Amino acid sequence: MRGLIGRSLTAAAALAMSTAFAHAAPNVEVLHWWTSGSEAAALNVLKQDLQKEGIGWKDMPIAGGGGGNAMTVLRARVTSGNPPTAAQMLGYDILDWAKLGVLGNLNNVAEAGNWDKVVPKAIQKFSKYDGHWIAVPVDVHSTNWVWGNKHLLDSLGIAQPKTWDEFIAAMAKVKASGKIALAMGGQPWQEATAFDGVVLSVGGPDFYKKAFYDLDQATLSGPQMVEAFKRLEQLRGFVDPNFSGRDWNLATAMVINGKAAFQMMGDWAKGEFLHADKKPMVDFECFRTPGSQGVVTFNSDQFVMFKVGKDKQASQDAMAKAVMSKSFQVAFNTVKGSVPARTDVADTQFDACGKMAMAQLKSADEHGTLLGSMAQGHAAPAAVKNAEYDVVSAAFNGQYTPEQAAKELAKAIKLAQQS
Ligand code: GAL
Q1: Does the pLDDT of residue 12 top 80, yes or no?
Q2: Using CA positions, which residue lies closest to atom 3 of ligand 1?
Q3: Which pLDDT tens digit goes with each residue over 232-283?
Q4: Which residue's C-alpha comes closest to atom 10 of ligand 1?
Q5: What SS3 class is residue 157?
Q6: What average pLDDT does this structure show over 288-311?
Q7: Where in the sequence of the chain do the CATH 3.40.190.10 domains occur?
């Protein structure tokens, strides 16, 4: 009997057993774009928390900062009828998927965890659809930050710039010293991320909202937006010749290593400084894009859970509960560079920049200056965001004058609204 058939039957039986066993061990397949050192370290916190609950983790990392690649792969997965258990997602993308009716309902976990009370309303706007919780917020990042190498700045006698003109003067002084003034990754999502703070520096929250929330044509093509593109043009003069296509974390590494003085980037960059054992206010400085102080342009990473079979729902609920736990919100966000997505978490374990970010988030929320980041999909839907990306990137790369860029921005956004 121990012939070929016997062996194959035994093998089949073993396979069936292992497969059956695999079904018995709950797991979650998670699609995300957290592939840098600090992002992976932060995500490990969740993997380990779920492991402790006997929930396995099937990783589906899609490299590419900002998540554009990840969303392309996700669309292919879902249209082929094979959605992951959960996916990292931002802002209006979540609402677009919710409209398709393919997301699971997290109300049970949300009600048990009192999410309505502890999650800021500005974040809930993207976590709920039709009154149901369809996503669990993992963190709150924000984009109007500048990161500086403190040793380099001190050596050049450069104080932290508070105004746009002081920022430009500081970068000019760095450039004159032979160092790279501004570390930039030449990718549209990164150029647009810097532009969030530039727009704020010109006209503050009202201008930002009229342009990026209301999509007001006169504002998008008007003199203040021309000034914003003039400032973007100024920045172009401070980057190194090899900026094009550079990944965001490699630009951050240039500041970490003192090759460059500044980077304008969301506070996921801070995760990279911490991951490199750098200390805030000692090795690096964190400050709001000069001229944008008092405003926070936020983006909250959330996990959406796709509608899956009953056998998977328990794991999804367990994952959602784990993400919203206070312990996870501290353990993850202290590594990731973001702040907690719930307001009842103490800042004691956060570094100086984290403490500042938590206080600024709270204050902005109270003063109505907690605004969704355009670059990170929290001000307008993807079609509009991508139209802005195209024009900002073209302008940064010298294809438009500031006057042309403002006109093109209004035109492109109007077209995108009709798509
Ligand atoms: C953002 C995301 C951050 C970080 C960053 C760089 O969209 O919210 O968590 O991943 O991209 O990839």
Answers
A1: no
A2: 268
A3: 999 999 999 999 999 999 999 999 999 999 999 999 999 999 999 999 999 9
A4: 34
A5: coil
A6: 95
A7: 4-140+300-356, 145-294+381-418
C-alpha 34 – ligand 1 centre gap (Å): 7
In three-state secondary structure terms, 58 is strand
Check residue 114 and give left, alpha or beta (phi > 0: left; psi -120 to 50: alpha). Answer: left
Does residue 2 carry a pLDDT above 90? no
- Distance in angstroms (rounded) separating the CA atoms of residues 192 and 273: 22
CATH fold, domain 145-294+381-418, is D-Maltodextrin-Binding Protein; domain 2 (3.40.190)
CA of 205 to the centre of ligand 1 (A): 23
Contacts of 143 (CB under 8 A, 6+ apart): 193, 196, 197, 265, 266, 297, 298, 299, 373, 375, 376
Please determine, for residue 3, whether its predicted confidence score (pLDDT) is greater than 50.
no
Q: Which two tokens stand for residue 383?
A: 């079609």
Specify the ligand 1 atom closest to the Cα of 249.
6
Q: Is the pLDDT of residue 162 over 70?
A: yes
Q: In what order do the strands lie in the sheet with 141-142?
A: 141-142, 296-299, 370-372
Which residue from 268, 332, 335, 378 has its CB within 8 A of the most atoms of ligand 1, so it is best to mutate? 268
Query: In whole angstroms, what is the distance from residue 349 CA to residue 336 CA?
Result: 13
The per-residue pLDDT for 312 is 86
Residue 309 banded pLDDT, cuts 50, 70, 90: confident
Please tell me the residue having the least CA distance from ligand 1 atom 12: 65
Write out the H or E segment, with its range, that includes residue 202. helix 188-212
What tokens appear for 67 in the block?
Answer: 């998540």
Segment 164-174 shows an average pLDDT of 98
370: which strand partners?
296
CB within 8 Å of 117: residues ≥ 6 apart: none
pTM for the predicted model, two decimal places:
0.93
For atom 5 of ligand 1, the residue with the nearest CA is: 66
CATH 3.40.190.10, applies to 4-140+300-356: yes
- Compute, in angstroms, the gap from residue 157 CA to the centroid of ligand 1: 32
